[in-house]
Amino acid sequence: MNKVILIPSILILKLSALRKMLAGIFFLFFFLIPISNGFAQTWINIELEQTEYDDATDKTCLKETGEPLNGNYAIKFNGFQTNFEPFTDGFKNGEAKVYRHKKLAERGTYLNNLKEGVWFYYKEDGTIRKRVIYKKGKTEPFGDRRLRWERSSKK
Q: Do 81 and 95 have their domain in common?
């Protein structure tokens, strides 16, 4: 009789531990990860004229001090375009977004100043205008056309 009572109590303890674990996973994915992916990031607002590009080192630096950019910068161009770009020692590294007239126009990733992976270009209404795949700053040959050809050749 004790064994019958003991098994359900152990089962209840395991279920409550499972609930706590699931609550922790929920908290991680729906609260902490979004914060680390941009909601809590601070951006340093500067004008394009405050920066200079050093051709010898390929680094973007502050014009006033000559120091390479480090951190997340919101660089304003001509009052209608803002580039949100993360910099590490003067190199663009990480997810970048370009806004024109306060609407998302481009989104993708930089790796050592070069576009890498999938970049999305948006229309003014927010729909995707085109998708381009980059590898070390160059567009991949064929890109989406190759995928369409592979799909159509299987018919």
A: yes
**78-125: per-residue pLDDT in tens?**
889 999 999 999 999 999 999 999 999 999 999 999 999 999 999 999
Contacts of 133 (CB under 8 A, 6+ apart): 117, 118, 119, 139, 140, 143
Task: Tell me the whole-structure pTM to 2 decimals.
Answer: 0.65
Q: Which pair of structure tokens corresponds to residue 79?
A: 């009052």
Q: Domain range for residue 48?
A: 42-153
Q: Are residues 75 and 116 in the same domain?
A: yes
Measured in whole angstroms, how far is the alpha carbon of residue 134 from the centre of its chain? 15
Distances (CA, A) of 143 to 70, 108, 138, 140, 148: 33, 15, 11, 6, 9
For residue 52, list its beta bridge partners: 61
Residues in the chain: 155
Whole-number Å distance between alpha carbons of 92 and 118: 16
